[in-house]
Design goal:
The protein is mainly α. The protein contains twelve helices and two strands; from the N terminus they run E-E-H-H-H-H-H-H-H-H-H-H-H-H. The chain has a two-stranded antiparallel ribbon with strand order 1-2. Strand 1 and strand 2 form a beta hairpin.
C-alpha cells in the first residue's frame, strides 16, 4: 500500500486505500461514498446500517445490504415502526442479515423516533444537516484519516440523537454516517473522487 494512502488500478485511477481488493467496495467508493444525500429514507437506512456495523466491518454490511433492505421494507421507517414482536422473531431467523436482537430492536425503536422528528422538523434531512462540519482539514493521507474517527459535530449529533431516544448512535457511528452521506468529504485529496465529491457538495442545496 502506498504511504500516501492511494492505490491505482489497471486504468491508473487513484482511489482511497480502504477500498482496495474488493470490487463491491470499489463500486461503493466510486458511486456513493461522500455524495450528499437529502432523502429521509436513505438517511435512516444509513444510521441503521452503521449501527449494525458496530463491532463488524462495513464490507460485511455492504454485502448484506440488499438483504437488509428487503428485511426492513427498504428502510421505510413508517413501516418499520409498525413491526411487532413476531416480525422481530422472523428477522432473528433471517440468515441474510446480522441477527443481533438488540440491533434489530433498536432499528424498530429508532424508526418511531424518526417519525417523531419528521413530524416535528418537516424532514430528517433538515435536522441532520444542521450538524454539517465546516472547519475540518482535508485528508492528505491514510494516517490523517485513521487519526480522525470522529469530530466535535459528530459528537454533538450523537448526543442529540441519544437525547431523542435513538440507540446505537455513538460518535464514531455518527461520523461514519456523515462521511457516507456527504456531510464531509473524506476522500483523500489525491483520490480521483475528491474533486467529484467537492463539486457535488458545492451544487448541493442544504435542506432546511
Amino acid at each position: 500500500m502506498p504511504t500516501d494512502g492511494l492505490f491505482a488500478d489497471q486504468s491508473r485511477v487513484l482511489r482511497c486505500w480502504w477500498c482496495q481488493g474488493h470490487d463491491d467496495y470499489v463500486a461503493y467508493h466510486d458511486d456513493e461514498w461522500g455524495i450528499p444525500v437529502d432523502c429521509d429514507q436513505r438517511l435512516f437506512e444509513k444510521v441503521c446500517l452503521e449501527g449494525f456495523q458496530s463491532g463488524l466491518s462495513w464490507l460485511i454490511i455492504l454485502r448484506k445490504r440488499d438483504n437488509f433492505r428487503a428485511a426492513f421494507r427498504q428502510f421505510d421507517f413508517h413501516q418499520v415502526a409498525r413491526f411487532q414482536p413476531s416480525d422481530i422473531e422472523c428477522l432473528m431467523q433471517d440468515a441474510g442479515i446480522v441477527r443481533n436482537r438488540r440491533k434489530i430492536e433498536a432499528t424498530v425503536h429508532n424508526a418511531a423516533r424518526a417519525i417523531e422528528m419528521q413530524r416535528e422538523y418537516g424532514s430528517l434531512a433538515g435536522w441532520f444537516w444542521r450538524f454539517e462540519p465546516d472547519d475540518l482539514p482535508r485528508l492528505e493521507s491514510c494516517e490523517d484519516a485513521r487519526q480522525r474517527t470522529t469530530c466535535s459535530q459528530a459528537v454533538e449529533l450523537s448526543k442529540a440523537l441519544k437525547r431523542r431516544g435513538w440507540k446505537f448512535v455513538g460518535p464514531t457511528t455518527a461520523y461514519a454516517f456523515m462521511q457516507a452521506m456527504g456531510m464531509v468529504n473524506d476522500h483523500l485529496t489525491g483520490c480521483s473522487r475528491y474533486g467529484v465529491v467537492e463539486n457535488f457538495r458545492l451544487a448541493f442545496s442544504r435542506p432546511t
